[in-house]
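Expect chain and fold; see below:
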Amino acid sequence: MSSIAPAQVDAAQGLSATDLAELVGAFNEVTARLQSTHEQLRGEVARLQQELTDTRGQLRRARELAALGEMAAGIAHEVRNPLVSIRLFGEALVSDLSDRPGEQELAGKIVRSVDRLNAVVGDVLNFARDLRVQSDRVDVEGLLHDVAEVASGYARSVGVELAVVGSPDRDVSVDRGLMQQAILNVVRNACEASADVPDGARRVEVSVQERRGRTPEGGSRPELAFCVADSGPGFPAEVRDRVFNPFFTTRETGTGLGLAIVHRILDAHDGSVVIASNEGGGALVELRVPLCVSGEGPGDESPKQTVRSLVMTSEA
């Protein structure tokens, strides 16, 4: 055991009560700082561990989806070829049976069934293909006008009122065709959900809001959100984590690929899809894109092309 030198004893005995109080206060302050730093480090370690777990999950999901996409694309190509022949034969039967209305109607059902199958094959191939994102300055008001023009006919056919509310006079850097497809997919789903409501107003509203989002590095950034609100039953909590899974659907018809394709398109734009409950009831889906995509400045009007393979993030 080490001994205390006489000089140290003399120095300690020479401390006044005020000096001792200051010494104890400084010790307590340093201890508190160390404790605070320790807690911050523990929190940061926990956050990094969670990010690592999420990243591993996303990579595993990406590999699984890539394998699924390749398999689905192969099957779709094999199915499409005989479908073309079946449709040709069906059309020939419809033409040959013009004098036999009953049999002609049956042949027409074959043609229509083939068309539905062909649409499913098209969705599968759409999901499996690489996305070539050609980003350019796009007028938001014009984009929403095109969406409303295309979707209004379907909305009327299912008895739903479609409204574009307060579209802003501004531009955003996106691939116009892909973003229009993504918004249309969400609007169509919203119309289907609203049409299922037996009583009350059946309405779908499309609007644009500015949001604050998170960068992949954890920072903050401005985002533009294309918001689609419906008056349907909303997304149950147990369904929200699965709605972007390929081939998952709660409806009797459909491929379950519409929202999966939406997620792919937003991921290719370095954006995200957020699902929430609408204040007036129903669901609210937000398609969020950065106001400056992939480092482009607001004044950069040069188009930018990127190619994304079959990768989807799990966040919703």
